[in-house]
Amino acid sequence: MSDHSSDNKRRREASPPPSSNQKRRLASDCCSDALSSASPSVAIDEKHEDFERLTTDRKNMLHYMLKTESRYVRTKNTVTMHATLDFPLRQAAINYAFQIHRRLQLMPDVLFLGVNLFDRFLASKTCHPHELPLVMAASIWIAAHFLQHEDTEHTNEDINFYCHRDAIVPLLPGCTKRHLLDMKREILLALDYRLHCPTVLDFIAVLGEARDQDEDAEALTMFIIQITLYNYDFISIRPSAIALASFYLAERICGNIKACALFLTDEAKEVVNVLEHFMEHHFVYAGECLPGYLVDKFSHPDYRRVAVLARHYYKRRCREFNRCISIVPLPRWAVRSSKALGMEERVAKPEPQEVGGGHERT
């Protein structure tokens, strides 16, 4: 017995240590098994009767997305423990992504994939705060090239023009096209060229095929899921749960009673509660303490009608229940952080006096 143990010990000492590629492959294999077993209940029930309308290929695609989505979900600690990135800085960077996306009129998918690439890159790399616009611009550029194949050259010229003439040049006077290309290459190498991942919009597309939405509900769903990009509470939530909760909430606000029987799971119900609290707080006090980024979205022509619809819904709901909302405000824009990024955005007004012992998250 002792001889056998000594032989094993000598064999282990003689064998070379595993290379970095072997370690990465081993970690990937272990991660795959853990992910498939750690989430026994998915956010969307594939066997629900509403999914009978889907084709076999679409069901297989949904099954694959549900199986792989957790690999790309960040944790709140990713941002909390980051050396240079705090939540106000992340909000400002995402607002910068909205500016690029709106200015260039890119596909909606580009925005969500670009933000996902931005978060995944910063989970493993440390950047100076002044480089965050460059990282975000490169992430949006990669997402646009990946998703808009037929318009690659046009996207290249537009993003290059926008980065030089508007936002990046005042922050980085020496910024050239080479800087953008270098950052793009650095992101691709850091992510090992694994670009696509199931986003909220992918699941919204499946839900839209399973249940028909009217124009207002569809616009309100898009409004809600874009708001979730700012709130750090949603960083660690799977895209399928965010999609399902946003879909359900939009249907309910628009008066679709049948939506109450939608295929909500426990995880999606928790997301609905977070969204409900967020929408109640900010829409009831919209004229007083609405954050600057929501003021912009509230007044955007594409969402003005549904934003007003949501605000009236929550005001009426509060009057019916005859209660005062316990205000737990989200992190506000920091003047220092916004100026550090060169964002000329409105800073949220001070929150009103808190009721019910609410506290501000930091």
From TrEMBL:
SMART domains the UniProt entry points to: CYCLIN, Cyclin_C
Gene3D superfamilies recorded: Cyclin-like (1.10.472.10)
GO molecular function: cyclin-dependent protein serine/threonine kinase regulator activity
Boundaries of every Cyclin-like domain copy: 95-189, 202-280
Domain Cyclin C-terminal as annotated: residue spans: 198-312
Keyword Nucleotide-binding carried by entry: no
Any GO BP: mitotic cell cycle phase transition
Origin superkingdom: Eukaryota
UniProtKB keywords: Cell cycle, Cell division, Cyclin
Biased composition (Basic and acidic residues): 1-14
Region of interest: Disordered: 1-30
Family: Belongs to the cyclin family.
Designated name of the protein: Cyclin-like protein
Organism field: Heliocybe sulcata
